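Usage

Read records sequentially. Each one opens with the input sequence:
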Amino acid sequence: MVTNNRLILGVITKTASVRVDSVVDFAYGSEILINHMDSVCKQPPLDGDEVARRAEKLLGSVTYSLLWYNCEHYVMYCRYGMAVSYQTYQNRERQRRERVRERERERERERREREREEREREKERRERRGERERRERDIERERGGEGEKGERERERKREKRRREERERRGKGKRGKRREKREREKERE
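and closes with the structure output:
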C-alpha cells in the first residue's frame, strides 16, 4: 500500500521502492480503475511474461522524480517498453505552450511600444516642423507679407515710393532711366 508518508518521502529523497503487493493491498479498500493506455500509446503492449520480467527486474529501490520518473513512467516501461508519463507530458506541453504564448504576448507588447514611440517621435518632428514654419511665417510678416504675395506687396510699395519721389523731383525720361537702373541694382 502507498501512503502519503511514503509518497512524500519518495519525493524528498528522490528514491522509491518497488515491491510485490496483492491487488487488495494495493487498492487499500479503494476502487481500482483500469487505464486503457493501449488506445493512446503508439507502441503495442508487450506480452504478460515480458511485463512481469521487467517489473521484477526493477524490484527494490529506484530513482524517483515526480516529473521525470514516477509510477506512471514505471508502468509504461514495464507494459510498453518506454518510460513516459502522459500526465507529465501533457503538463510539460501545456507549460511549453504557455511559454510560447507569453513570448508572443511580450513581442506584441514590444511591437506596440515601438509603434507608440514612433508615433511620439513623428509628433515631435511635426511639432518642430510646425514651429519652424511658424517662425518663417513670422519673419515673412515682419518683412511685409508672406512668400511671393509679400514680395509683390513690397515691390508695389517700392514702386509707389519711387513714383512719389519722381513727382516730387519732377524728373523726365532721363530720370526714369536712371531710376530703372537703380531698381535693377537693388534687385541684384
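Summary fields computed downstream for this record:
- The chain has a mean pLDDT of 78.
- The first strand starts at residue 15 and ends at 18.
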